[in-house]
Amino acid sequence: MSLLALALDPLQEAPPPGLAPARQGVAGSADPVLVSLRDVHLSYGTVPVLKGIDLRVRRGEAVSIIGPSGSGKSTLLRVINGLIAPQQGEVHVDGIDVRAQRTDAQKIALRKHIGFVFQQYNLFPHLNVLANLTIAPMSVLGRSRAEAEHDAHALLAKVRLADKADAYPGELSGGQQQRVAIARTLAMRPDLILFDEVTSALDPETVGEVLTVIGELVDDGQTCVLVTHEMRFAEDVSDEVFFTEGGVIVEQGAPSQIFGAPENERTRLFLQRARGDDRRALRKRSRSGAALALATP
């Protein structure tokens, strides 16, 4: 597998980018809807995972998908960027029919416009931070080394890692590696960023620094779809929230509705449990912060 293919999509092999055709669809469309899923069904064998999903994301919006484990949240993200193909339904991103992008080259061309930040950081361990950020922009977008490095330094400053350009991933904390992964995604200037439970593998004291960076991206108008178990964060940053369970969207609406006055009993029960987990996590972070303060001379 090439370094370039990994930079574009750490989970899937792909051919060199020179084979990718020009992007198909309505690139640069003025349509305010950037992502559209309609009646999407997906099964693994006889096990249904998504059962008639309808979802729309407008440009500049932050949308959070919440729900219990196994409810199809992460699968939805993979359907949006073409990693998984549903058996039925329509999936469009910026006017492009995602299901019609069948060859590896077509999928790479599509994913140049969709950033994906995973639970795992997927950084190249043998490359320093600066090289991790510049390899795809230089190889795929044709930027000069000087331009790519200039952008990379600016992005590292944005995620508060300006002094880590020469560091290697193994020298960074989990939170720092995740912020590098976010900066690497931004280096491709994507129209859309998908975040898949990006804080789930982090220590409690590093969660806040990653959420702060994502919140600032949302404030800047970056279109984002977030799968998260951080309920307070989802309530703060989202324009719309979708609650999923059993492969269906049980309820959707503004954060004030979903978190303040949910209409469905399943949503209410889930949020009661999730908020209890949030309170326990907050206490754990507070204890960790206090212990660090005491240990610091």
From TrEMBL:
Alphabetized UniProt keyword annotations: Amino-acid transport, ATP-binding, Cell inner membrane, Cell membrane, Membrane, Nucleotide-binding, Transport
Gene Ontology molecular function: ABC-type amino acid transporter activity; ATP binding; ATP hydrolysis activity
Keyword Zinc-finger: no
InterPro entries tied to this protein: AAA+_ATPase (IPR003593), ABC_ATPase_HisP-typ (IPR030679), ABC_transporter-like_ATP-bd (IPR003439), ABC_transporter-like_CS (IPR017871), MetN_ABC_transporter-like (IPR050086), P-loop_NTPase (IPR027417)
Keyword check for Nucleotide-binding: yes
Location of the protein in the cell: Cell membrane
Membrane topology qualifier: Peripheral membrane protein
PROSITE patterns hit by this protein: ABC_TRANSPORTER_1, ABC_TRANSPORTER_2
Listed GO CC annotations: plasma membrane
UniProt family annotation: Belongs to the ABC transporter superfamily.
Designated name of the protein: Amino acid ABC transporter, ATP-binding protein
Species the sequence originates in: Caballeronia sordidicola (Burkholderia sordidicola)
